[in-house]
Amino acid sequence: MHDSTDSRPLTTQEFHILVALAERDQHGYDIMQDVAARTGGKLRLSPGTLYGSVKRMLERGLLVELEGRHRPDPQDDDERRRYYRLTPLGRKVAKAEVARLSEMVEQARVYGLAPKRG
Amino acid sequence: MVWRRSAVKIYRALLLAYPAEFRHEYAPEMERLFADRLRSEPRLRVWLETLADIAWSAPKEHLHVAWGDLRYGARTLAKAPAFTAVALLAMAFGIGATTAVFSLVNAVLIRSLPYGDAERLVYVWTPNPRFEGTPREMTPFTADYYDWLRMSRSFSELALFHQEMLNVPGAQAAVRLGGARVTGNFFQTLRVSSAMGRTIDAEDDQPGHEHVAVISDRLWHSRFGGDPGVLGKMLSLNRESYQVVGVMPAAFVYPHDGDFPYGISGLRATDVWIPLAETEKQKLDRAQNPEDGVAIGRLRPGVTLREAQSEMSAIEARLDPLYPPLFRGWQAYVQPFVESAVGNVRRLLWLLFGAVSLVLLISCSNVANLLAARAAGRTYEMGVRTALGAERVRLVRQMLTEALLLAAGGGALGVLLALGGIRVLVRLNPGEIPRMDETSLDIRVLLFSAGITFVTGLLFGLLPALAASRVDVTALLKQGTRSITGPSKRLRSGLIVTEVALAVILLAGAGLLVRSYLNVLSVDTGFSASTLTMELRLDANYRTPGQRAALFRNLIGRIRTLPGVQSAGLVSAAPLSHHESITFVEVKGYPNRKDQTTDARSAGGGYFEAMDIHLLAGRFFTDDDATRKPPVVVVSRSFADLYFRGREAVGGQIRTGGRADAPWYTITGVVADVRHWSTEQAPKPTFYRPFFAEVDGHATLAIRSTLPPDRVTASVRGAVRSVDPTLALEQIRTMEQRVMESNNRRRFQTLVLAVFAAAAVFLALVGLYGLMAFAVKQRTAEVGLRLALGASRGQVLTMVLRQGLGLVAAGLALGLAAALPLTRVVAAWLYGVKAEDPLTFAAVPVMLLAVGLAACAIPAWKATRIDPVTALRYE
Lengths: 118, 875
Prior knowledge:
The complex is a heterodimer of chains A (118) and B (875). Chain A has one domain (12-110): Arc Repressor Mutant, subunit A (Orthogonal Bundle), CATH 1.10.10.10. Chain A contains four helices and three strands. Chain A has helices at 12-23, 28-38, 47-59, 88-110; strands spanning 26-27, 63-65, 83-86. Chain A has a three-stranded antiparallel beta sheet with strand order 1-3-2. Chain A is elongated, with a radius of gyration of 16 Å. Residues 1-5 of chain A have low confidence and may be disordered. Residues 480-485 of chain B have low confidence and may be disordered. Chain B contains 24 helices and 21 strands. With 875 residues, chain B is α+β, with helices and mostly antiparallel strands. In chain B, 42% of the residues are buried. In chain B, the strands form three sheets. In chain B, strands 1, 2, 3, 4, 5, 6, 7, 8, 9 and 10 form a ten-stranded mixed beta sheet that branches. A six-stranded mixed β-barrel of chain B has the order 13-14-19-16-18-17. Among the domains of chain B are: 2-79, no CATH class; 127-331, no CATH class; 542-725, no CATH class. The chains are: A mainly alpha (118), B alpha+beta (875). At the A-B interface, α2 and α3 of A face α2 and α3 of B.
């Protein structure tokens, strides 16, 4: 049921997960901490929400779960945990979302709703 | 740390809220994440956020699964339109029929009556076991009622009323309306208030103040055109003037037919309520000319029915000695109002509901069968999915969703079907089922339909789903073909056996009722069906017996000269009119028992001829017999058989009342027995007095004519107008119509049950055909092989038929075993047949085997057409 043509917009949580995974492969707890740190603790992903989002992003082909040789170096690898990586599609979708958001900010700036660029 | 470990354990338990598939995939990760957070963040915050997270995301995950299953289910159903259509229709039929019957049950038994707190209302009747054959619902004497008011403590209110048809002058002829003379607390007892103006109060209920009337909403519209200024206007009732003081809401038409037995029969609504206003003399009268009425009371809070009954029994025992010795023996019977209003139809409705539930079961097991057949076809898909790691729960859930989707569609269609079904049911209304006209779909019916839709979908989706998901993957993969039949074969055969068994039960029940109905139709009523009857009631203008006799003599004389009239006569009450009179009787030369009673009627000259009641001995009455000394009577055959066994009845002597000074009557004739009470009740010993010996204000005309009834009616109306234009004819009908009315209930229940039985047999036939067709298809390769190895077409035919009829036989055995004890449920409705009627129980198997043969014939024939070469290639 991988449906990559699914054009459903990303939820806030999904966007943050994509951003967290853009830098490096991570497991669930890392993703949660990453998101919490970037949002100043405002968005704290709880297990149900986090893995529900991950499940659907896997189904849409935005993420993959790492197996075998793709997993991190043995000294960093907590082998009980599952690691996730952004797919090229996931990266594309994240970029498109960023572009959409910046365009919106740009439009808002024209009408004086956002500070002018320094 | 210990607390952290137990916290994680609690969290693990909470994870059960998620769908199994999700849980198996992510639960360990989620637990770890939870434990990590507990280590680094304040405990309380982690718990609060986690609980909120579960409450939010667990239902969401379930929704995702359900939505996926729904889309998958809808897609698979859409791919098999024939299957989907058949399953939807079967479901719709079952749910529609059940919904229609339930809405009837709802309207008649469940929906509340239009009176406040009807559960606390009771009737108080005064049965008298001394009068053989009289019902328990005898109306109490007015004197008793007024003593009850003083003596009883059980009621917060106790009212009395008297039903009466009232003459209201109309534009052309007088109209007769249902009326009630009521005590001042009548409306208070029922807890109803007027829509306009006021109701009748204690002050109106005094002699001299009684000329006020409360009218129905219907009368307000028909008579006063809905004029808002109607209050204070005058209304003439039985030539007396009444002032309108109130208008009742449209829903209030109490009392009407069906509210209690032996009221004015066929009365659809009461339109006028006027005060009873008894005089002090009437309130005390137990001997001269005592009046009676219907007593209805409201139990005081906290008083039980049993307490009220024992109090009233004690009171009535104290009042009984106040009656003249001959008329003693009164008891009290406190009957819940609701039981009286619906008691006699309750069992009938539950019978219908039981029958329709069986039909629903059959149509649902058909759907289960279809699902199982499809699941068998999908064994390969299921096996592959299992091999790929899909869990059983997942497969069951998927198939269940599909079944519920089908059920929902079937339920929606079923409700639409029920709308039509209700119309048909209401049109079949036998007339005496109260509030049947009000049958409709309301929120309770819709909830019921939704409930049975869900339950049947669940039940009949679960069975095949469980059977189909139990796939032996190794066997499937080893065999490597798609021809596996799956483990659901036994389930499918079991379902067919059940369907046949259920159809047998319904068919046996319906068969017994049809036989009973035919028996009732062939009963010898004792009278001619074509005779036209009509009632005439004189009003207060005809005070003396002489005035009344003169009018009736004048009228019957005119009627006899009307064109086409062959004979015409008067009678106190027509057969099947619900007017019966019972009297004490003493027969000369017979060992008379104490309290020996018999039915009595008054009949005028020409009556027996008009009704075609056969003369067996002696002679009929003439109109001169009224004045003959000694007075004469005519008796019925069963009267003669009982009291004049072995001797001549004609010339014999009887007397009534049991008093020593009562005159002896001489029997001049013996006539055939007549079914007076109902078509189903054996005739009772009856004697007829000459009509003009004692004329009261009410009589029935019986007319035999060569002309059609409506022409006779028109000319009789003219004759009535010519003697007194204010009089109105009522209850105009042929005896055939009275017989039809008497059989209404039986026709209704027989028809509905027969329709259900036919539907059950049809559905079982469809199910059996489906199973056999599928089985033949599944066994194509096997049959081909047999044919290739030299089996004859005849052998193949026998093989298929044996399989199908084997299932029918198993169902028959099961059904007959269940039907024998179950037909006792209908025993109360049988007439002239026993519950274990051999003819019915022989006909049912023959019929079902024939139907079974028909269902198997086409698949069996198809099996013989199988081409061995193609069949083996098919493998």
